[in-house]
Design goal:
Elements: E1 13-14, H1 16-19, E2 24-27, H2 30-39, H3 43-48, H4 56-64, E3 67-69, E4 80-85, E5 92-95, E6 97-98, H5 100-112, E7 113-115, E8 119-124, H6 127-141, E9 146-149, E10 157-162, H7 164-170
Antiparallel strand pairs: 1-6, 2-3, 2-4, 4-5, 7-8, 8-10, 9-10
Helix pairs in contact: 5-6
Length: 171
């Protein structure tokens, strides 16, 4: 018999530092970005020191809209950040710490899923698992996935989580 739950003493695994290596923008709101810019350098120097280069006009416009490159985020008082890759159209919520829900989602993805160019797909016959994957997608990333029948077997369903940002982060 395998126990359903196994208690393990763990430490918090911070995901912010690995995320800083990616070309992502964070939605903080214009007030928080202004506060952050006061602590940082001039906008011109920030732009010239960007790890991933971008147009100066678009950079300043995005700062005014409350969007800042993730490499300038240091201390965050929340457990989630609103992130968007530059190629993506929509932003997602993403956890800053590796938690049990995120680990469970990654387990479903590795075990029963695949990563496409613009989406993640998880297929399974168990209705309970399908419902749990949909719930995790909503809770972790703020994405409502699509659910379709997969005709490989009689009871197979496919959950599709369409997000270029999420694919970029997990690839």
């Amino acid at each position: 018999a395998v126990p359903r739950k196994y208690d393990v003493e763990s430490t918090k695994i911070d995901l912010l530092e690995p995320l800083k290596k990616l070309d992502l923008d964070v939605y903080l709101g214009s007030d928080k970005v202004k506060e952050l810019l006061i602590k940082l350098d001039t906008i011109k120097n920030l732009h010239s020191n960007l790890k991933f280069k971008r147009n100066y006009c678009k950079f300043t416009t995005s700062l005014k809209k409350g969007k800042i490159p993730i490499e300038y985020i240091n201390l965050v008082d929340t457990n989630y950040l609103r992130l968007k890759s530059r190629k993506s159209k929509k932003s997602i919520s993403f956890p800053l710490f590796f938690n049990s829900d995120f680990a469970e989602f990654l387990g479903y993805l590795v075990g029963d899923g695949n990563v496409c160019k613009r989406c993640l797909q998880i297929s399974n016959e168990d209705e309970e698992i399908i419902k749990r994957v949909v719930e995790l997608s909503k809770n972790l990333f703020g994405i409502v996935p699509s659910l379709r029948r997969d005709f490989r077997t009689a009871k197979m369903y496919k959950v599709t989580i369409a997000s270029e940002t999420l694919v970029y982060i997990l690839s």
